[in-house]
Amino acid sequence: MGDCIFCKIANGEIPSATLYEDEEFRVILDLGPASKGHSLILPKKHAANIYELPDETAGKAMILQKKWQGN
After folding, report:
1. How far apart are CA 43 and CA 26, in angstroms?
2. Which tens digits make up the pLDDT trace of 33-65?
3. How far apart (Å, rounded) are the C-alpha atoms in residues 47 and 38?
4. How far is 44 from 10, CA to CA, in rounded Å?
5. What's the predicted TM-score (pTM) here?
6. CA atoms of 69 and 18, how far apart (whole Å)
7. d(CA 29, CA 35)
């Protein structure tokens, strides 16, 4: 989606404090963190919300989240 700020960040059009990146996701530090190290996992393909993510993508995001938990 052309006007989605999260897609622009995920695809590198807007600079971010990137912690991790692969072909499907970019993990960034949140600009308004709720806690120290608060990060966001952004899929590179647009979805309006988590419920629109394909099951495979959602599953990969959860595995990625587990890797970052506690770091």
Report:
1. 7
2. 898 888 999 999 999 998 999 999 999 999 999
3. 21
4. 5
5. 0.85
6. 16
7. 11
